[in-house]
Write the structure tokens for this entry.
Amino acid sequence: MEHYAGIDVSLESSSVCVMDAAGHVVREGKVASEPEALIAWLQQCGVDFARIGLEAGPLSQWLHAGLREAGFAVELLETRHVRTAFKTMPVKTDRKDAQGIAQLLRLGWFRPVHCKSMAAQELRAVLTARKLIQGKLHDVEMSLRGILRGFGLKVGRTTPRSFAQRVRDLVAGHPTLEGVAAALLSVRAELSRQFNGFQAQVRAQARRDARARLLMSTPGVGAIVALTYVAAIDDPARFQSSRDVGAHFGLTPKRYQSGETDVSGRISKAGDVGVRTALYEAANVILTRPVKGSRLKSWAMRVAGRAGMCKAKVALARKLAVVLHRMLADGTAFDATLAAAARASA
């Protein structure tokens, strides 16, 4: 008889439930959230597992890789599907969640999530760290401006190089403000140094990565957008059609149809928000800056004439997602004529 195991992962320990094909619980337990501990516990069950499931989360990819190497058939479950299914349970506990995951596996009512390769995870870590430092650098500068504004000291427009000196000039003669400014400017200087280091690392990575260089042949797509997209796609073959990529990153409209009601709403915003943001920024560059010889921009401007610039940027971001995937799948550089002739994603 086939057996299924559901694992509800927590930071320290995980709840595990083993269920047979008839839906009867065979074994349950709490196991340390370590690949070795889970492998040993599952092997002690003495049954053949048709499938083992984990909800996608921070530890899931690490545990998934360990269980996969041990020879188990493991699936990562899409978080939204799992949460929606669990809404029917009146009582929510880790034990109940593990049982629910096992039931989803037994019934086949789940959406598997791609487990990214180690190279993609490492690239994603670099991009995430860069984005975090960039955000903190902006927060420090805005906080410093806000503090000085409370004393009637307006920093005004500055460049990254002139900002520190402008602040020092404003707080001169104010001992308390001089101390505050010195501390925050010191933090800003270190954040700037680290951010510049990540910038150099990202540019070097883009030069070394053939896929990133290929995507950068597209107007509006620079090193950050290209690497973000490459890390998210990882394996282009996992999409049956390039048109599926737009929906995967939440760039297609929601639809509600029931009886005589049929409503098409805003984009779903499902999937990776970082990729969706990067594609939108690339679309914004194409539409707001001079781009020579790109019929892709001409197509988007016609959309803007009908539906407005905001919708045109989203439509162009969706088309970019499709075009970039096809470029990765075929290994071909950007062709403005083919891109303009391609059908827009539904």
Observations:
- The chain has three domains: 3-113, 119-208, 214-341.
